[in-house]
Amino acid sequence: MKTPRFIQAASPVLNGAGQVMFQQSAWTGIFFLIGIFWGAYECHTPAVAWGAVVGLIASTIAGYLLEPDGKGGAAGLWGFNGILVGCAFPTFLEDTWLMWAALVFCSMLSTWVRTGLNNLMAPFKINSLTFPFVLLTWLFLLSSRILDGIAPASLSTPELAEHFSPELSTSFGDLVIYWLKGVSQVFLINSWVTGIFFLVGLALCSRWAAVWAAIGSAISLSLAILFKADGADIASGLFGFSPVLTGIAIGCTFYSPNVKSAAWAVVAIIATFFIQAAMDVFMMPFGLPTLTGPFCIATWLFLLPLYKFDKGGDMHSEWDSEWDSFVNKVKAREAKKK
């Protein structure tokens, strides 16, 4: 199927949406945006959908301002942190013009912070992933506690951990809904229909990515029920989104799909679930969401050993190419010093 010209022209922006789940595909980006709009309007939070668009565009423009060659922009690697910022700000902050100004600024900042963190992490052969979004959003949400112009709207009250109710409906239909919401919550959307859009969007670019997203959400849902996590959080898919991203990252992005990498990915997904639970407790006294922090930590931990699970080693994707580029730059600087 031939891609229409207007989609080709918008591909740097649309790819940015797809790159949240490691997919360089304008069609995947379109399905992701459709899912975001559906879920946001279904939950009566349209600002989240429009915030995603604003954050995506702002962060992409920020990349072109400092890197006019456009290599990272064409692949969508400047937009994925920005779109997440755009989803998070209207979710947790009051809808004011100052919030939108902060959203644009933070989205643009995420692109530049990403470049800096990638340079910092290059010697360890790991990527900053979505941590620029996590770090900057935490800072802005914390500052909102004393800034009425961007006052919190749905941030939790700072508190110490306590016992939660594990009561939950476990009918087959409800379990499917929880599973799909685990996928949709990657973009902070609480909608099982959005989860379907996301899985279809993934399958259009990579069937393996769709499979690992489904597996990640299923494993985390099973563990949450088995270990009797809070029923309300399970029903909203809040234990699924980080394992979904970890599954895609380890299962088919940074490693070629095979039996050994699949086993490694399953272990990584399980670890992400427990990291998620631990970070939930750790962040409670601050009244902050963990966002995709558990995914970042788990993926770093499982990339740092630098295991090779096939003859060719890691997959060659836009993420890997950029990763290698940063490593080569660091090596070149070290050689000049010598």
List keywords for this structure.
338 residues; mainly alpha; single chain; 16 helices
Describe this structure in words.
This protein is mainly alpha-helical and 338 residues long. The protein is globular and about 50 Å long. The chain has 16 helices and no strands. 51% of the residues are buried.
Mean pLDDT: 90
Structural class assignment? mainly alpha
User: Helices and strands, in N-to-C order?
Assistant: HHHHHHHHHHHHHHHH
Poorly predicted regions: 312-316
Through-space gap between termini: 53 Å
Residues in β-strands, percent:
under 5%
The biggest sheet, with number of strands, parallel, antiparallel or mixed sense and barrel status, is: none
Q: Rg, please? A: 19 Å
Helix content: 55-70%
What is the 3D shape?
A: globular
How would you summarize this macromolecular structure in one to three sentences?
The chain has helices at 5-9, 11-18, 26-42, 46-66, 71-75, 80-92, 97-121, 131-143, 172-184, 192-205, 207-226, 231-235, 241-253, 259-283, 293-303, 318-337.
